[in-house]
Amino acid sequence: MPNIPWPGRWTRLAALAAALALAGPALAQQPVSTEASRALTLDEALRLAEDASETVQVARAGLTRSRGEMLQARSEGLPQLSGSLSYSRALASEFQGIGGGGAEPDTTGPPPPQNCGRYTPNPALPIGQRLDSLEHAVNCAANANPFAAFGDLPFGRENTWRIGLNLSQSVFSGGRIQAQNRIAQAGRTRAELELATQRAQLAMDVTQAYYDAALADRLVGIAEATLQQVETTLEQTRLARQVGNQPEFELLRAQVTRDNQLPVLIQRRSDRDLAYARLMLLLDLPTDEPVSLTTSLDETVAVPVARFAANEALLGDTTAANRAAVQQAQTLVDVQQSALRIARSQRLPNLSVNSQFGRVAYPEGAFPGWNDFRSNWTVGATLAMPIFTGGRIRGDEMVAQANLLEAQARVRQAHDAARLDTRVAIERLESARAQYQASAGTVQQAQRAYQIAEVRFREGISTQVELSDSRILLQQAQANRAVAARDLQIAQARVALLPFLPFGSAGQGQSQSQSQQQNQQQAPRQQPRQAPADQGQAFTSGGE
C-alpha cells in the first residue's frame, strides 16, 4: 500500500463514505415494482403450471398409448373380418391361341359347319335324312374347338374383377391372448400411476418454487430493513461525532457495518430474481413479467394440492402399499407373470378357423355386370403345434422366470424404500412445525431487544458492538421465522401428496432453507467483542 499521508487518507475515506451514503438509500429503496403487476396466488400458479407442464403432457400421452395397446391386445380374441376389391388387366397371356378369351379365329381353311348343335338321333326319319344328320354331326365334331368349354374361365382374359371377404377367428391359443390382455391392463395401470406421480411432483415443484420466491421476498425486506437501521445508526454516530460525544472509532465501526450490509442486500435481490425466474419458468410465463405473490408464508391454510391427487381419499396416507412407486413395481410383477404365461403357451397347440368368400368376373369389356360374377366360398381350420424348436421355448421360459423373480425382489425393495421415505417426510414435517412454533415469539423479543439497544446507544450508555449484536440477532430471528414458515408449508404439501410422489422427494427442497439457516446461525458464534473489521466480517457471514 502506498504511503499516503494521514490527511490524504482521511480525505479518501470521507469521499468513500459519502459515496456509500448516497448509494445506500438508493439500494434500500429498490423494492420490486408492483405497478401493473400480476397478482398471483399459489392456487393460480398450480393451475398455470399444470396447463404448461411438458412432463404432464408426456404422461397423458403415455396413458393414451396404453389405452391403444389395450385395444390392440383385446382385438386378437375377436373375429377378424376384412374385405377386398381388385381389378387386373392382362397385357399378354400364355393361354392366348388355346381357346377362350384372346383366341383368334382361323380364316385360311374351309368354313366351319353351321348349326352345330347337340346331335339327337330320330328313328322316325327316313334313312337318307338320318345319314345326312349323322354326317353333319361328325363334321361338327371334327371342326369343333376342344378348349371352347374354357371360354368363360380366366385363361387369357384381359379383364379380371375380384370381390372377397376373409373371416378368421382364434379358437385356442394356449392362454397367450389372455396374458397379452393382462399385460396391456398392467401397462394402463402403470401409465395412470405415472400421470398421478408427474402431477403430484409438478405440484410439489411449483409449491416449492412459489414459497422460495416468497421467502426471497421476505429476506430482501429483512435486508432492506437492516440496511435502513444501519443507515440510521450511522447518521446518529456521525452527529454524535460532530458534537464530540462519540470517538472516531465508533464512526468507522458504523461505516464498516453499513458497507458490509450493502453486498448482503445485493445478494438477496439476486437470489430473489433467480427464485422468480425459476417460478416463471415452471408457469411458462415471461421472466420479465412483473408478478406479485399474494399467498403469504404465514398463512396457516392448507396448501391447495388436493386436486393434484389421483384419489383424494389417499391424501396424507402413509401406508407403504399405497405409494405410487410400490404400485408401479407391483404392475411389473403382473407383467412378468403374464410374460411367463406367454412363454409357456408356446408349447400348446394353436387352433383357428377361417372362411373366405369371393366373387370373380371376367368381362369382355372393362366393367362387369352383376351376372358376370361367379362365387368362391371356402371354410377351413388351422392347427399349429411346435414339435422341435432347438430349446428356444425353454430359453424363453427361463428368461421370463428370471424377470419375474427380479420384479418380485424390486417390489420388496420398493416397500422398504417407501417406509423409509415416509418416515423421513413425517420427521421433516414434525421438525418444521416445531421450528415454526419455536420462532413464534423470537422475532418480537429480538425486535424489543434491538429497540432497547438503540435507545441505549443513542443515549451513550452502550457501544456500537452491542447495537450490532442486537441487530444481527433481530435479522437472524426474522430470517429464521421466514425459513421455518416456508419449510412448514412445503412439508405439509409433501406429506399430503406423499402417496403419489416418487421416492426421495421427502428429503428434497430443504437444502436452500437449511443453508440459509446455517448462514444465519453463523453470526452468534462470533466473539461479541472484536475489532471493527472483524465485526463487519462476522455480520457479512451472518447475513449471507
What does this structure look like?
The protein starts with 5 loop residues before the first helix and ends with a helix. The model is unreliable at 1-34 and 511-544 (pLDDT under 50). The chain has a domain at 53-76 and 182-342 and 403-543: Outer membrane efflux proteins (OEP). It is of the alpha+beta class. Helix 1 packs parallel to helix 6 (248-283) and helix 6 packs parallel to helix 12 (532-543). The strands form 2 sheets. A 4-stranded antiparallel sheet has the order 2-3-5-6, with no helix packed on it. The chain has helices spanning 6-28, 42-52, 54-75, 127-143, 176-243, 248-283, 324-345, 392-438, 442-458, 464-496, 511-521, 532-543, and strands at residues 38-40, 80-89, 159-172, 291-293, 350-361, 373-384.
Total strands: the figure is 6
Q: What Rg do the Cα atoms give?
A: 46 Å
Shape summary: elongated
Helix count equals 12
**How much helicity do the residues have?**
55-70%
Largest beta sheet, briefly? 4 strands, antiparallel
Order of helices and strands: HEHHEHEHHEHEEHHHHH
